[in-house]
């Protein structure tokens, strides 16, 4: 079954305490060279049938209206993923 993946990230001006905690932990665990970390959300929508332009548009609308909080988050990606 085809899937549509939606990625949501905090807006740049919004503080990201989880991202800051991860960024602080990386060097302690031996991972260096990363300037910052932002943590987001990923949603996978399984489609029953083919992904039509109408279904993809519905996924975009759902991402803007339900899967993200438009006050503090941006929908950064909506794409069909092949299995």
UniProtKB/TrEMBL annotation:
The gene is purS. Pfam families: PurS. One of its GO terms (biological process) is 'de novo' IMP biosynthetic process. Its main location: cytoplasm. GO terms for cellular component: cytoplasm. It is found in: Cytoplasm. Part of the FGAM synthase complex composed of 1 PurL, 1 PurQ and 2 PurS subunits. Keywords: ATP-binding, Cytoplasm, Ligase, Nucleotide-binding, Purine biosynthesis. Transmembrane segments: none annotated. Belongs to the PurS family. It catalyses: N(2)-formyl-N(1)-(5-phospho-beta-D-ribosyl)glycinamide + L-glutamine + ATP + H2O = 2-formamido-N(1)-(5-O-phospho-beta-D-ribosyl)acetamidine + L-glutamate + ADP + phosphate + H(+). HAMAP family: PurS. Pathway: Purine metabolism; IMP biosynthesis via de novo pathway; 5-amino-1-(5-phospho-D-ribosyl)imidazole from N(2)-formyl-N(1)-(5-phospho-D-ribosyl)glycinamide: step 1/2. NCBIfam families: phosphoribosylformylglycinamidine synthase subunit PurS, PRK05974.1. This is Phosphoribosylformylglycinamidine synthase subunit PurS. Its EC number is 6.3.5.3.
